[in-house]
Fold this protein.
Amino acid sequence: MLSKKINKALNDQIAMEAYASAYYLAMASWCEQKGFQGSASFFYKQAEEERMHMLKIFRYVNEAEGHALSPAVPQPAHDFAAYNSLFETSLEHEKKVTASIHEIMKLASDNNDFRTLNLLQWFVDEQLEEEKQMQTILDKLKLIGKDGVGLYMLDSELGQRASVPEAEE
């Protein structure tokens, strides 16, 4: 059975993952409105991944005899200053998620909750991948600058990335 502290921390993480999903949906919508169809597909895929993360924790909490709570999700921003800001915001948010996962890992470690540590190790690895992905996109954007052809090519690349099934990535 989960301790009350760990149950609360995991419910807070569920809410964070739900918010991330909503935020990525807002980014997908912005991209569609601005003609970045590939990037919209990329952000739709990111939204689905965050929802999957939320459900993974949600199910774990209930399986571990805790009580998972369906979160109320605050309305994310829907307007962004520029294309680059989408990825800057995404990287910042992914770093917050990483910090939160690390805090829950510390709590689980301090409480000798090895089942929760095992679950969270998957998230530690996933967060490394998420942060690296956003940083790589930002690095490419620095190289491209405001070049329209370069932005078009990056948008196309992100669309192709979104169409690759998970097992092939």
